[in-house]
Write a structure and sequence with these properties.
elongated; 74% helix; 344 residues; single chain; mainly alpha; 2 domains; 13 helices
Length: 344
């Protein structure tokens, strides 16, 4: 299994992506063959294959990257052939020169790899005339343009659903962590249970990072996408919801850490602790309702009819000297959680 994982992806790319790549490659080959009938349109086919990406924005980036690499590679091949003539060893020389030029110009990996490949193909296929070099550049541009057109025509994907799911999962886990905190405050906890609570809370960072990556992919999928206009309002709504999550994650992890660091068996005897636990449970409930209202496209709906977290004053009895730091920390974090959930 480990050996297979070196060349197999964890999941398949969508079959539609495979169809688009095949369509673009075939179309580029046929069109380039009509324009340059004397040459096999290898450059057009390769360009089309590489430029088809999951989003139109990525395709444009790949088209520029690919075309720039080809132009430099073809110029390197032409220059080396012009200087040293036609022989087998100049292919190796052209490859080395192309690699060095890519390093000097600090090209991206895609362009840097394309430069020596293009130089090698030009010399191996067997032409070093200015006309041949110019035709290969045009051929590459044809392939890249066809790939972009195919990506536009064949249902350019809109990647909003993964972002929405990531937000929902993140919010649900924050709410569950708040519930677990409430239980831990009023129930005796062992060291192992507190450690497990902390480890679980820290996983919120990973979920937040994943949601951030899904947001980037969603924004990218709408850039230059002909279907993007009608989805931008949905994305803006989801972005506004996600903007609340980092503070909630930070406060939730902070509360968990404070409980772990300052816990003792007498904590549950503090009168204020039970009130804080109740507010944590209500905060978890309010957060779930907030996400549900946004998912139902009601971003301005009230999370619940009951008073939200900390709207009623808490009567804080004087705590034991060993507990006041923890209780003060929990109360302040609760206040800030309330602000994020209610957007006050």
């Amino acid at each position: 299994m480990r050996f297979a994982s070196t060349f197999r992806a964890t999941r398949r790319v969508p079959f539609l992506q495979t169809v688009k790549a095949a369509t673009a490659t075939v179309a580029a080959w046929l069109i380039a063959s009509l324009i340059f009938p004397a040459q096999i349109p290898v450059f057009a086919a390769i360009a089309a294959l590489l430029v088809v990406q999951p989003s139109v924005n990525q395709s444009l980036g790949k088209a520029i990257e690919r075309s720039f690499g080809v132009i430099i590679g073809v110029l390197v091949a032409y220059g080396v052939a012009l200087a040293f003539g036609q022989s087998g060893w100049i292919v190796l020389l052209a490859i080395v020169v192309a690699i060095v030029i890519s390093w000097v110009l600090r090209l991206t990996p895609g362009s840097a790899n394309q430069v020596p490949i293009s130089a090698m193909l030009v010399l191996s296929i067997g032409a070093s005339s200015p006309d041949y070099a110019f035709e290969r550049i045009i051929e590459t541009v044809i392939g890249a343009v066809i790939a972009i057109i195919v990506n536009l025509v064949i249902v350019a994907p809109v990647l909003l659903a993964p972002f929405e799911q990531s937000i929902s999962r993140l919010a649900a886990e924050i709410a569950s962590t708040l519930d677990r905190l409430a239980t831990a405050l009023v129930s005796p906890q062992s060291s192992a249970q507190l450690a497990e609570l902390m480890v679980t809370a820290r996983l919120l960072r990973t979920m937040q990072d994943k949601a951030q990556g899904e947001l980037t992919a969603a924004e990218d999928s709408l850039t230059f996408n002909p279907r993007g206009a009608k989805h931008r309002r949905t994305l803006a709504r989801d972005e506004a919801l996600f903007a609340r999550m980092p503070a909630l994650v930070t406060r939730t992890i902070g509360m968990t850490r404070a409980l772990r660091d300052h816990y003792d068996d007498d904590l549950s005897s503090e009168p204020t602790v039970h009130a804080i636990a109740e507010e944590l449970t209500r905060a978890a409930h309010d957060l779930r309702l907030l996400v549900a209202s946004v998912s139902a496209q009601e971003p301005h709906a009230s999370p619940r009819e009951d008073p939200p977290v900390l709207t009623a004053p808490l009567v804080v009895a004087t705590p034991h000297p060993s507990h006041w730091v923890l209780l003060g920390s929990l109360l302040e974090d609760l206040r800030r959680i309330h602000e994020e959930i209610t957007a006050e």
